Amino acid sequence: MFDTALSANDLVFLAKGAGITIVVTAISVVIGTILGIIFGVIRVQLGAVLSAPLTLFLDIFRSVPLLIQLVLANAFVGMVLQLQLSGFFVACMVLSLYTSAYCAEIVRGGIDAVPTVTRRAARSLGMSWGQDMRYIVMPLATRVALPSWIGLALGVMKDSALVYVVQVTELLKSTQILITRLQEPLFLLLICGAFYFIISFPLARFGGYLEKRWSND
Amino acid sequence: MKKYTLTALLLAAAGFAGTAAQADKLDDIISSGKLRCAVVLDFPPMGMRDENNEPIGFDVDYCNDLAAALGVEAEIVETPFPERIPALMSNRVDVGVASTSDTLERAKTVGFSIPYFAFEMVVTAAEGTDITSFESMKGHTVGAVAGTYEAIALEEYVNEWGDGSEFRPYQTQADVFLALAQGQLDATVSTSTVAQANVKSGNFGGIEVVASAPFDIDYVGLFAKRDEYGFLNYLDLFVNQQIRTGRYDELYEKWVGGDVPSLTVPGAYR
Amino acid sequence: MFDYTFQWKQALARLPKMLDGAVITMEVAIISMLLGILFAILLTMFRQTKSRPLNAIATTWIEIARNTPALFQIYMAHFGVASFGIHFSPFTSLLIGITFNNAGYLAENFRGALKAIPDTQARAGQSLGMSPVQSFRYIVLPQMLRISFLPMTNQMVWAILMTSLGVTVGMNSDLYGVTQDLNALTFRTFELFAIAGVIFYIITKVITLSARLIAARLFRY
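Above: the input entities. Below: the structure tokens describing the complete assembly.
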């Protein structure tokens, strides 16, 4: 169907880019989720007023384009702090905080969805705060939060396409490099798009399935 | 007792002097055993990739020569045009071997070596347009690579022309020629070397070099942090040696061919 | 530790240009949002019908919009479709890319909202003599838009943030494009992008706060 100059070498090159996309995403989602849970719990425990500084800080990551966050972090780390950190490191750092900002919202929403009466009942049965969190809040909040969390993780994977700006050669950048050499934009872009789609689509469907199932009982 | 105090003082002074004389960039590079060069890899024949997607080109060879002279290993860091100087400022690279025009505005931020290459600017147009000269681009949609010498100059012309003329900066040289071949642009101004390389490659149908652009000769220099005098001195001497030893001619023949452009400005010392 | 000298003055002198860019950014975001809502309603209606081709169109659109990067969609809108000889200016390409993305996400939100509206309402409307389109227009649609008001606000913020991707298709009049051009001239990277970041922050805050005010006014009872 397509008469292409794409060689096996080039496919390996694309696969490497895809690998970088997956690694950057995995690192950022893991660190971002841990941070997000901590931030989310802090926000619920402290209340709106006391946690305002944290809320404001996290808000920045949701209100400024990721591209600008990456350029600024890169310039700050290298020019102002004079640290020699790789672009990969900076990319993971920014994406982790970016993830944590959204994750904190999801966690907060999840905890808020647990009825206060249920939690009071748990406490009046003699459970400690930790036990209440562990046995009552976590299982219930997870049901509410997990589908959104899957959406977030997939969102981070798609947004990781922007880390090219700190010299990380991920999938979309690898595709552009090949377009430069082979001049087959449509064909190469379709391969690239198909890759994102193949990973994202089943997981998104799975998230939708969970949401449906858990909202029914 | 007095003697001891004096010795202690002298030792302390020596120690102080020792820390004060900090290693500079040149020392850092030599001791780290690695030279990181910013190179633009979608700018044939200065920087591009071979069929294994490995970097090749004039700038790549130039970086390798520089690393060999320093006795270290070269590392090519690909930087798009707009990211060249930010990459240096954020310590991502040690030196830029990226066909960078030595403008006074840029020299406020980075230090330039003496010119190591000189470009002429030409107009490349899509076939079927009536563009035969620089001036006839008036009223057309034209483009160049964001943040380059020619883009800044061309945009000024377009603003002056008005009258339906439109300027579009793209992120990479490849995107510019792609847009030109697709008919999204009517013409572009670029260095003659990249224009000829792209027309010759046959990757882009229906484009041809039609005229030269009335811009000054575009001298490009290596660049490094502007306060690293030791390193900048070394770069100057290195460029001079490349010419003196005939390596410059050799590389020019290998990647470009034809008459080697002179790198000196008539009537000026440097 | 800090040997970097900040030159805020040099960067702040360019503020008027950047504010001009912010206006274009708002323009793209608002138009793409309005068009996005229209297309999303259309896609939602397509999904409600029993027609296979209409269903397929809606599903394809929504799934591609939601499962590929926005940068990819915008790049496609410019360089991808040009392979078929269809040319869009950078502004139009960016607008198409963001509208496509908006419509996909909003349609999914609308679907969720529809679930909260009992079927019986539409049927009641029809038994009162309304056509299916009329009952959708007068009974379902207003409720659907109200339920999805918060997701719509979020999508509007997204649209603002997505305008920064226009540089990849040759856009230089929006806020990010202007900032990048100024950076190429002066290389005060940190200062310029910090200012751009602050402007983006203010824009998104104004949008979320005014959305809250509008919601409080429209939906009180």
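Note for the figure: The two ends of chain B are 59 Å apart (CA to CA).
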